[in-house]
Amino acid sequence: MATAKKPAADKTAAPKKREPNAAFMKPLTPSAELGAVVGSKPLPRTEVIKKLWEYIKANKLQDEKNKRNINADDKLAKVFGKKQVTMFEMAGLIGKHLS
């Protein structure tokens, strides 16, 4: 029994450009705690993360030994609920502060 071969993919076709996910672009209102860090006006989730990183770097809150860890100051501790989080935890924790 012979198996059918798939036709070769056309290598001259331009790669499809990624469309941004509309859910990430929707402006969300930050809670009072998060608003103290990123501002109180509605922002897309991507901008909130960007502003958080600007704040973290401006205040030198990245752990010196392990750059993936963020040492929260008083403002960030209210958002995160603890004194140190990893950069991977951060996105999940701020989701609770956006509506």
From TrEMBL:
<feature type="domain" description="DM2">
    <location>
        <begin position="23"/>
        <end position="99"/>
    </location>
</feature>
<protein>
    <submittedName>
        <fullName>SWIB/MDM2 domain-containing protein</fullName>
    </submittedName>
</protein>
<dbReference type="InterPro" id="IPR019835">
    <property type="entry name" value="SWIB_domain"/>
</dbReference>
<dbReference type="InterPro" id="IPR003121">
    <property type="entry name" value="SWIB_MDM2_domain"/>
</dbReference>
<dbReference type="InterPro" id="IPR036885">
    <property type="entry name" value="SWIB_MDM2_dom_sf"/>
</dbReference>
<feature type="region of interest" description="Disordered">
    <location>
        <begin position="1"/>
        <end position="26"/>
    </location>
</feature>
<feature type="compositionally biased region" description="Low complexity">
    <location>
        <begin position="1"/>
        <end position="12"/>
    </location>
</feature>
<dbReference type="Pfam" id="PF02201">
    <property type="entry name" value="SWIB"/>
</dbReference>
